[in-house]
Design a protein that fits this description.
- This protein is α+β, with helices and mostly antiparallel strands.
- It has one domain (about 5-70): 2-Layer Sandwich (TTHA1013/TTHA0281-like).
- Helices cover about 25% and strands about 30% of the residues.
- The chain contains 1 helix and 4 strands.
- The chain has one helix at about 35-55; strands at about 5-15, 20-25, 35, 65-70.
- A 4-stranded mixed sheet has the order 3-2-1-4, covered by helices on one side.
């Protein structure tokens, strides 16, 4: 049973760098960027699991909510 709180992540698109990045997160230290949103989600899930393990939290599959922002061209 997962007793940890879900993590909310706000992802944004950086037009200049052509990457998706984590602009804000309810979990400290979660900082990533990726060329695709799918890859950012995958990497965020893996990084979150690693951070939780390093902090002594045991969650096999961390609950994560991603809010995505992309400005219209």
């Amino acid at each position: 049973m997962n007793t940890t709180l879900p993590v909310t992540i706000r992802a944004e698109w950086d037009e200049d760098a052509q990457v998706w990045y984590i602009a804000d997160s309810t979990y400290p230290g979660l900082v990533l960027e990726s060329p695709s949103l799918d890859l950012l989600i995958k990497n965020a899930r893996e990084a979150l699991a690693e951070l939780r393990e390093l902090n002594g939290e045991h969650s096999a599959d961390p609950d994560m909510e991603m809010v995505v922002h992309q400005k219209a061209a």
